[in-house]
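new request in #modeling-help
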Amino acid sequence: MNVWSLIVVLAAGTLLMKLVGPLTMSRVRVGARLEAVISLLLPAVLAGLIVAAMVDGAARSLDARAAGVIVAVVALLLRAPLLVVLLLAAAATGLVRAVL
Amino acid sequence: MRLRLWTASDSLRAGLTAGWPLGVPTATVALSFAVAAEPVLGPVTTVLMSVLVFSGAGQFAALGVLTAGGATATAVVAGLLINARFLPMGMALAPSLPGRSVWSAAALVDASWAIAHQGNGRFDVDRMVGATIIQYVAWVAGTAAGVVLPEVDRVNALGLDAVLPAFYVALLLPEVREGDKLVTAALAAVITWVTLPAVPPGVPVLVGACACVLGLVRR
């Protein structure tokens, strides 16, 4: 298997996983229970992505991005505009990297 | 018909607006991918991978296996595993798609999917497409820049790689004002944390996402 087949298979497989739901479930009626599960999927996926991005997987130790995430939470609770939040998060992470 | 076209383009524009803060961070991640991939894949293949695969997590996972000397087939499996979260996310999207092409689900990426969520399990698909257009352009342009420019790998010293998780926090906080969503998010975070060292990259997020079955229990 060469690199080109890797790219083609990975691209096709990724696309397929996005399309399986829409291709097979287009006629499914959304009941109250399915709706409850779907609306809980978003916070679950986001929380997982945040943890995975803050933590160095193998060692399970926080890395510098954790500082950015914590600063973002505080800035958002203080109702800072989104762009300010993102800049502060980057600055906090850059600062931690510079110091450590 | 005319009315429908107008609302569609408004939604698309709203997606472009909501997605634009993602332009620079997406390009930054693409830069660091290109810097890591170019010595392994070569410049043309690196850029074409971003054009065709368009998945940061998947591309990094596959590259990680290749860099460690793993087999090409193993690299494909790693990339597909990390992208397996698109299966449940696509299923969540399905009920919002009737009347339009299933191909619009190709615009499904993490941030756009979250931006497009309207609550109560419905998604604004045009908004998702708009936000994805920004990220696709930034992803391909960032990869090309990373292959061409020398020493761009220093951008991470600026902490720009923290912008993406910070953006996810901004999307998550308004959600968790509701108790059951807070419980679900906390459970997913714990599951992800616990499984991180045990399973291949990408799988922890997928396992953590199973916390959404709480929706069956609570109502």
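bot summary: Chain B touches chain A through 97 residues (CB under 8 Å).
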